[in-house]
Amino acid sequence: MNDFGFVSLDIDYVIAEDAGMYTLLVTNPEGRAETSTEFDVELLKNIYLDTEHPESLRRIQEIEAIQPAKPSEEELMPEKPSFTQQLSGPKEVLREGQSVHMDCMVQPINDPNLKIEWFLNGYPIMFGSRIRTMHDFGYVGLEFLHIHPEDSGTYTCKASNAAGEATTEFFIECKRKYYWN
User: Fold this and answer.
1) What CATH number belongs to 78-179?
2) Which segment of the chain is annotated as a signal peptide (predicted)?
3) For 5, 45, 72, 83, which has the most beta carbons within 10 A of its beta carbon?
4) pLDDT at residue 83 above 80?
5) pLDDT tens sequence across 87-122
6) Residues of the chain above pLDDT 90, percent
């Protein structure tokens, strides 16, 4: 900072790397002036490892040493899947190129091994850039960015895990554009 002939260097939040020799060089058409200074940075102890409460420290160490409880038999056996909301979607006949969204709700929502599969007329659906699936906290969805007549048929959503499986179905019909007036 230079203000009315007073020059200063301010360093906020000094760190160890700021220690060293600093030189100020001032020049004008009449000549030059130079001054230097050196300073060290004393490191402060930021973390105090000593305790003022040895009994509290001992108790904390006891708590941290306790091993987590093993899961009970009830927690080990997964819940059999069930659909709390059946698969649903548009009921009207669809026109080629329309976007389509179908969804349902499944339980259990906290089973990491729950597997969701989609079928069209009993055959696994081949997913691509125009077909998206969602499965999050019990919500399950199937979305077409644009549908084709060959996508018509019965859609089945199957949820399965080690305890069993459940299915839900929905029928969609799509006609070619030239069938519409």
Assistant:
1) 2.60.40.10
2) none
3) 83
4) yes
5) 999 999 999 999 999 999 999 998 999 999 999 999
6) 56
Cα 116 to Cα 161: distance, rounded to the nearest angstrom: 9
Distance CA 129, CA 75 (A): 38
- Between CA 160 and CA 168 the distance in angstroms is 12
What are φ and ψ of residue 26, in 5° steps?
Answer: -120, 130
Phi, psi of 79 (to 5 degrees): -80, 140
Domain ranges of the chain: 2-65, 78-179
For residue range 5-21, what is the model confidence (pLDDT) as tens digits?
Answer: 778 888 888 888 889 99
The two structure tokens encoding residue 166 = 């459940």
CA–CA distance, 81 with 84 (Å, rounded to integer): 10
